[in-house]
């Protein structure tokens, strides 16, 4: 209020961040975009021409189509499973007595603080040919063939659900926290059954958390690198690992840049359109 | 020469005029209330005096000096905010000592003075408490002590009692008024509570949508409101629409009411105002016949809603220890001619 | 009416087992006495924990990660606090744009950031340097620091600051004595979240880090892609234990869910 006479203040206060970002985020991003518009020659390196050839190649080549399709399918599956198990878990957590709740919150959310590499390593140990999974299935008499989820879509899905489900839990948890418990008591007092209260009172109020959790999980899966790289390996590439290989193995930077730009565009397009959709839906609910 | 003067003070937010060329003179030691409904510009006015908002035009003059452009930290006024605005990370004592520290008062002296100020508001034993561990009333007192300890020429209070419960609010009214009179500090109180304004102030400024409706001492304001807005806002009242049919006669729903109409021509549409406690209600067959629609016991008085040929009326009668009228009873209302106030036009 | 039925509790138990399984697996394997990844069926051994001490690479990488996370979290907070105050307190042309710009790294996949920095640094000759890596991390974590600072600055009423001003405090005194202490929880939370995010970051760092600036996640990732031996399990176990201790401390002093909500 008292600063209404000094219109420069907000610009001065944001200047360090804006300048830093312009130089060290804006410039690299623009250079990547430009790089993706050059062609690449295996003998001569990056050419100085301008072309959409890299994009044409990524979009037209069935190899890349398959990779983009797989990444999208993976993101969808992981999101669906995270909703299916993360939402009930958040609800259970919110109903535990406070002592147990803080312990389990720590257990469920704690892994977020542990490096993805470590968590994926744990699944690799399970999935590997000599891993637990094989030992169990052999012990149960399912045959002597080692069972391996290593380098499989299922394996990637399980590991990614493990990596990302805490985001779903925390997001739903946050919106459950905001629910006035008396709104549920009010429904009981009006004769609603437990199921009805869950379905008609609790779930609708938790919806913002479910939706924002979904978009977080979806976007993070679509651009996940470490888990697909370790579990999926070279055999089951996703967009991020494919771009990584173009950059660091094939050294075709312009093509890698084109993949990165497409990933970025897809990511932003999905987040923005999803947000639009959600806002419209909720605008209706809360009108 | 008045001590504090607002000279055509105006504040616009975009196209919206929050305070409309307000002028006012406050005497030294006077207790003034700014009274009005929510959103009428009371806080805006107070903040212009405090220097937290700069006026679009107009001046604030304190003790002959134009302080319109003085920054708030150089004005030296004492302010109690509606939220109290205590510093949550400081103890009560440190809160109160802060202003003295800013004035460069040495540590020993400022702690002593802060202590005294807290004693003055009866918080002597709570000096080390933090705001979160205090009750609403205690916080309010800390805020008051913090504002007073710097010995401000003017004390500004923005709804200081509105967060307190009813009982405490009444006690604090008395305490605050006594303290103000003891210290003789010029005070401006912002409130939307008419009882608070009536009970504490030397003069009341009634505001309506950024304009001043009336400035008067409490009794004058109550007994001689200038328009139906003031009479309705300050205390309860009955507003009746009528027409002047003859000299000193106004007809309300075909009933002739005698009243002083010297300010109005015959044939003019007018509004009559009469306060509920100005009626005398009895079962003697005299005056306006009414039927009791609702009867509410208020402790010291009875509040009735009655139906009559003049329309629905609110009536209060003192509690004399016997049962009052009941719903459905018939009764008669009488009043003195001077109890009626006439306003021009259809205002209510 | 608020109690949980048996089905809910069974579900909860399975969920918790699922969350803990891979971590317990890593911990179990780290105690093996074999030369390859296996469960310690013939007795526990600390052999692979001793091996960490013989591999200064991992210790160096750990040191690099800690130093990098300290540095980038601190710079991110220094950038974010004034920006958060401006964005929370003022309406000005370009406000939305600036806030979107400073939060934009949240929308950019780390891989994209990685390739962008790789190319940029190799062009301007910062490739492989610590400050290049640090700048990339600062960009990455600033949105987290900003979000938490913004949350506490927005929630804070300006009344206390106004009160201090009317009591005679100068603008700078108000900032130092009132504003900063009041938004300190947000600042601290932002710093912690930034630190953790930077410390754990892999995808972007893989592109930017050079052999001399390898962070621990990068070192571990490279190790896994080359050889898989129980050393990686013992390093992971140490990391799990350290993280767990940190979590207990944070929960004690700050409330863990507050930090996580900032992350989501
Ligand atoms: N910064 C602002 N920008 C735009 N309009 C404002 C601003 N501050 C106040 N107003 C408007 O000015 C009018 C007067 O506000 P003010 O806060 O002075 O009211 P008030 O009389 O104190 O009301 P209350 O009793 O509710 O506190 C209101 O209509 C309000 O919406
Ligand atoms: Mg107000």
TrEMBL record, chain A:
GO terms for biological process: transmembrane transport. GO terms for cellular component: plasma membrane. Signal peptide: none annotated. The chain crosses the membrane at residues 12-35, 72-91, 103-127, 147-174, 209-231, 251-274. It is found in: Cell membrane. It is a multi-pass membrane protein. It holds the Pfam family BPD_transp_1. Keywords: Cell membrane, Membrane, Transmembrane, Transmembrane helix, Transport. The keyword Cell membrane applies. Its main location: membrane. The keyword Transmembrane helix applies. InterPro entries: MetI-like, MetI-like_sf. SUPFAM superfamilies: MetI-like (SSF161098). Residues 68-274 form the ABC transmembrane type-1 domain. Coiled coil: none annotated. This is Putative spermidine/putrescine transport system permease protein. It comes from Pacificibacter maritimus.
TrEMBL record, chain B:
SUPFAM superfamilies: MOP-like, P-loop containing nucleoside triphosphate hydrolases. PROSITE patterns: ABC_TRANSPORTER_1, ABC_TRANSPORTER_2. Gene3D superfamilies: 2.40.50.100, P-loop containing nucleotide triphosphate hydrolases. Keywords: ATP-binding, Nucleotide-binding, Transport. It comes from the Bacteria. Residues 4-234 form the ABC transporter domain. Coiled coil: none annotated. One of its GO terms (molecular function) is ATP hydrolysis activity. GO terms for cellular component: ATP-binding cassette (ABC) transporter complex. Belongs to the ABC transporter superfamily. This is Putative spermidine/putrescine transport system ATP-binding protein.
UniProtKB/TrEMBL annotation, chain C:
The chain crosses the membrane at residues 7-31, 66-88, 100-122, 128-146, 178-199, 231-250. GO terms for biological process: transmembrane transport. Keywords: Cell inner membrane, Cell membrane, Membrane, Transmembrane, Transmembrane helix, Transport. It is a multi-pass membrane protein. InterPro entries: MetI-like, MetI-like_sf. The keyword Cell inner membrane applies. It is found in: Cell inner membrane; Cell membrane. PANTHER family: INNER MEMBRANE ABC TRANSPORTER PERMEASE PROTEIN YDCV. Belongs to the binding-protein-dependent transport system permease family. This is Putative spermidine/putrescine transport system permease protein. It comes from Pacificibacter maritimus.
């Amino acid at each position: 209020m008292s600063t209404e006479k000094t219109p420069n203040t907000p610009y001065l206060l944001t200047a360090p961040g804006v300048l830093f970002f312009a130089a060290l985020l804006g410039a690299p991003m623009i250079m990547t975009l430009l790089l993706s518009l050059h062609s690449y020659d295996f003998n001569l390196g990056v050419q100085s021409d301008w072309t959409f050839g890299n994009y044409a190649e990524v979009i037209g080549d069935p190899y890349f189509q398959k990779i983009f399709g797989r990444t999208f399918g993976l993101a969808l599956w992981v999101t669906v499973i995270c909703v299916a198990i993360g939402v009930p878990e958040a609800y259970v957590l919110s109903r535990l007595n406070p002592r147990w709740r803080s312990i389990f919150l720590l257990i469920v959310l704690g892994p977020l603080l542990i490096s993805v590499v470590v968590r994926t390593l744990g699944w690799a140990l399970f999935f590997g040919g000599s891993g637990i999974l094989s030992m169990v299935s052999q012990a149960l008499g399912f045959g002597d063939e080692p069972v391996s989820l290593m380098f499989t879509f299922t394996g990637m899905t399980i590991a990614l659900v493990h990596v990302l489900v805490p985001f779903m839990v925390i997001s739903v948890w946050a919106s459950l926290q905001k629910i006035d418990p008396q709104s549920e008591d009010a429904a009981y007092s009006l004769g609603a059954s437990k199921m009805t209260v869950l379905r008609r009172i609790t779930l609708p109020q938790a919806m913002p958390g479910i939706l924002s959790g979904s978009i977080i999980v979806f976007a993070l899966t679509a651009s996940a690198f470490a888990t697909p790289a370790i579990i999926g390996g070279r055999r089951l590439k996703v967009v991020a690992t494919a771009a990584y290989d173009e950059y660091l193995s094939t050294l075709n930077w312009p093509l890698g840049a084109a993949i990165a730009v497409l990933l970025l565009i897809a990511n932003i397009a999905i987040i923005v359109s999803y947000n639009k959709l959600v806002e419209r839906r909720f605008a209706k609910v809360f009108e | 020469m008045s001590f504090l003067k607002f000279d055509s003070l105006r504040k616009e937010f975009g196209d919206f005029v929050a305070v409309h060329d307000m002028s006012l003179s406050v005497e030294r030691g006077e207790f003034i209330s700014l009274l009005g409904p929510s959103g009428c510009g009371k806080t805006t006015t107070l903040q212009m005096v405090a220097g937290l908002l700069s006026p679009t035009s107009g001046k604030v003059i304190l003790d002959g000096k134009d302080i319109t452009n003085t920054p708030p930290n150089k004005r030296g006024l004492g302010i109690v905010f509606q939220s109290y605005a205590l510093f949550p990370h400081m103890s009560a004592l440190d809160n109160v000592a802060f202003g003295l520290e800013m004035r460069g008062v040495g540590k020993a002296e400022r702690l002593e003075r802060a202590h005294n100020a807290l004693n003055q508001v009866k918080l002597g034993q709570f000096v080390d408490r933090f705001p979160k561990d205090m009750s609403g009333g205690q916080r309010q007192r800390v805020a008051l002590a913090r504002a007073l300890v710097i010995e401000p020429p003017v004390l500004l209070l923005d709804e200081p009692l509105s967060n307190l419960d009813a009982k405490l609010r009444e006690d604090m009214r008395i305490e605050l008024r006594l303290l103000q009179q003891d210290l003789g500090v010029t005070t401006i109180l912002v409130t939307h509570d008419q009882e608070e304004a009536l009970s504490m102030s030397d003069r009341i400024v009634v505001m309506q949508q950024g304009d001043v409706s009336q400035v008067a001492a409490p009794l004058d304001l109550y007994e001689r409101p200038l328009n139906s807005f003031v009479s309705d806002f300050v205390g309860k009242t009955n507003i009746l629409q009528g027409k002047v049919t003859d000299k000193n006669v106004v007809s309300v729903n075909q009933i002739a009411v005698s009243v002083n109409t010297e300010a109005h021509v015959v044939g003019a549409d007018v509004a009559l105002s009469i306060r509920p406690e100005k009626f005398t209600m009895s079962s003697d067959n005299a005056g306006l016949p009414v039927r009791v629609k609702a009867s509410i016991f208020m402790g010291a008085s009875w509040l009735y809603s009655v139906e009559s040929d003049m329309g629905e009326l609110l009536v209060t009668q003192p509690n004399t220890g016997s049962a009052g009228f009941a719903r459905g009873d018939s009764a008669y209302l009488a009043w003195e001619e001077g109890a009626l106030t006439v306003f021009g036009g259809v205002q209510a | 009416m608020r109690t949980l039925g048996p089905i809910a509790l069974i579900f909860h138990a399975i969920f918790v087992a699922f969350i803990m399984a891979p971590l317990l697996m890593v911990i179990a394997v780290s105690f093996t006495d074999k030369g390859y990844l296996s469960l310690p069926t013939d007795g526990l051994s600390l052999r692979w924990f001793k091996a960490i001490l013989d591999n200064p690479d991992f210790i160096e990488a750990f040191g690099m990660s800690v130093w990098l996370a300290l540095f980038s979290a601190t710079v991110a907070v220094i950038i974010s606090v004034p920006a958060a105050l401006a964005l929370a307190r003022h309406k000005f042309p370009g406000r939305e744009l600036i806030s979107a710009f400073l939060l934009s790294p949240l929308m950019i996949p780390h891989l994209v950031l990685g390739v962008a920095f790789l190319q940029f640094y190799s062009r301007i000759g910062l490739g492989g340097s610590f400050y290049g890596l640090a700048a990339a991390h600062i960009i990455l974590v600033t949105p987290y620091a900003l979000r938490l600072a913004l949350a506490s600055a927005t929630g804070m009423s300006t009344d206390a600051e106004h009160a201090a001003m009317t009591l005679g405090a100068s603008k700078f005194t108000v900032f130092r004595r009132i504003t900063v202490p009041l938004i300190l929880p947000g600042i601290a939370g932002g710093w912690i979240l930034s630190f953790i995010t930077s410390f754990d970051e892999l995808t972007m760092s893989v592109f930017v880090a050079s052999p001399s600036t390898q962070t621990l996640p990068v070192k571990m990732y490279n190790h896994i892609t080359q050889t898989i031996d129980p050393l990686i399990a013992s390093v992971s176990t140490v990391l799990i234990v350290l993280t767990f201790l940190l979590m207990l401390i944070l929960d004690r002093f700050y409330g863990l869910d507050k930090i996580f909500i900032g992350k989501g």
